[in-house]
Amino acid sequence: MRILKKAFLFLLIVNMIRIIPGCCECDDSSMPFNFTKMDIINLDNSGDWAVTTSLDTMKAGAVAFEIALFDSLGYYYAQELQVNTPGFSSAKAMSCDCSFPYQANQYLSSLSITTLNAITTEIPAGSDVSDLFVARPTNNSSSGNSLYITLEALCNQTNGKTYYDSGVESFGLFLTVPVAYSQAQFVISAIFSDNRELSDTTRPITIVNR
Questions:
Q1: Domain span at residue 172?
Q2: What is the pLDDT of residue 27?
Q3: Which of 151, 163, 29 minimizes the C-alpha distance to 104?
């Protein structure tokens, strides 16, 4: 899928140097990176587990998306580590089982979501619907209600966060009110602590009620 192709390539490169475990001294210093790209993919949240889907249809009460924030050049970091990290060599790579920590130069300060279509008679097109969404980090894929958190809480946990073997912040966004009409589409904006903003638009969603 499009959302994490670059991240998967990055993980593959990094983990190639971890094929043969061994004992060695690992460098605990973190590699800085910037969030420069956002990807959005649809989630099928109609069952017990939220799963990514290529379909553009969702049930009225199960509108959800997965967001990935990452450095668009992140997969080059593995090569940089091999070439530029002091004391790093191909022989050391083959004998070490090291995780390489990454830390973003900025954290997520807020999320803003605007609807491009009316959701109900009380929520017209153009409304800020950020408060109508809840979030869940991608590693919590169960649809149990206790695992949903507010957008503010999601943003707070990115402050000072360390990422191991990848610089990808991914999470699900879940609309908490049923869509009353046949179409839905949203603009999702991520605002960072350095005042930069990344925005993307979801694909048009056809709402089904069966």
A1: 29-70+103-208
A2: 62
A3: 163
- Per-residue pLDDT, averaged over 95-108, amounts to 79
Structural contact between residues 148 and 134, judged by C-beta atoms closer than 8 angstroms? yes
- Percent of the chain past pLDDT 90, that is, above it, reads 57
Q: What is the mean pLDDT of residues 161-184?
A: 92
Q: Is 92 contained in some domain?
A: no
Contact criterion met (CB below 8 Å) for 56 and 5: no
Tokens encoding 109: 């300060």
Supply the CATH number for residue 182's domain: 2.60.40.10
What is the CB-side half-sphere exposure of residue 86 using CA atoms within 13 A? 3
As a dihedral over the C-alpha atoms of residue 134, residue 140, residue 146, residue 149, rounded to 10 degrees, the angle is -30
Residue 74 backbone phi and psi in degrees, to 5 = -60, -30
Structurally, the chain folds into a number of domains equal to 1
Backbone angles phi, psi at 10, to 5 degrees: -60, -45
The answer to the question of residue 43 being in a domain is yes
* pTM of the predicted structure, to 2 decimals: 0.76
